[in-house]
Amino acid sequence: MVWPASRCVLLDPGVPDYVFSIDQTKQGWASIDLKKKRYQGCGRYGPLLAESVKLYARLAEEHPALSRLAVCADKNIIRDIVAEELKKKQAFKVADLPIRAIEFGNVDEISGVTARVEVADKNLMVLSLSFVFTSSKLKHYLLYDAIHASMSMIPIPNWKPRFPKETPASFCHHVKFTSSSHAFRADLTKGVLCCRIKDLMDSFFVHFDFIELPPGCKSDALDDSDTGPAEMFRTMGCGTGDLIKFVSISFDDSVPEDDIR
C-alpha cells in the first residue's frame, strides 16, 4: 500500500531508520510512492545512492500531528558500494566516496541512513540525509515533490553565509520555509533572514538580506523560562503569491502595542 506524502502532518523533524528503529508490526506504515528518482552532483555513486533510498510514512488519521516519517537504504546497494571502495583502498587507489572505518562484515548491523526534516509544506519536503557508512562531512539534501511523486538528491553545498550588518547579534532559527525562489529563516522575535535558493546550490558565498518584523512586533518577552518558546505564540510562512504570513496571538508583548485591547 502506498501513501502520498502530502497527507503527512509532521511535528517531529527526526526521521529514523525504518529497518533498525521502527516497530514494523504497528499498523499504518507504508512506503511513499516515488515514481522518479533524480540525482545531481552526487559523484560516481550518485545514481546508486539515490536509488537505494526509500521513504515510509505512518499516517495517524484521527490525530494527524502524530504522523511519522521513516527512511531506509537498500543494504544490497550499500554493500556493493562499500566492497568496491574497500578494494580501491587496498590497492591504494583514489576513492570515489569517503568510507568510514567500519568492517565490511558489520554493514548489515548498522543503520544505513539517518535523516531530518528541514522544510515541509503541503506538497514539498526537504530532508537533510546522511549515509552512515560515509564520512560525516558528506551529507545530502533529499527533496520530495508530492505533486509529481518525485525525489531529487543533491550533496549539501559547502557554502559560507554573508549576513548584512543589521542582522541581530543573537538570532534564533525558529521557522524555516521557502517562497518563490527564496529561502527564509525567521527569528519570531526579531525578523527574517532570506537568500536566493539558487545561491545555496551553486555559490560558495551566500548573501543574505535581513527583514525586520513590522513596527511594534519585536519582542524580548518571548523565548524565556516565564513565557515558553516563541513558537507557542507566533509562526511565519509563505502566503499567496509573494506574501509572507506572520501570525501572533495576543500575549502582552507578543503583538504590536496598537493591537492590544
From TrEMBL:
InterPro entries for this protein: DUF1618
Record's protein name: DUF1618 domain-containing protein
Pfam families (alphabetical): DUF1618 (PF07762)
Residue ranges of domain DUF1618 in the record: 186-254
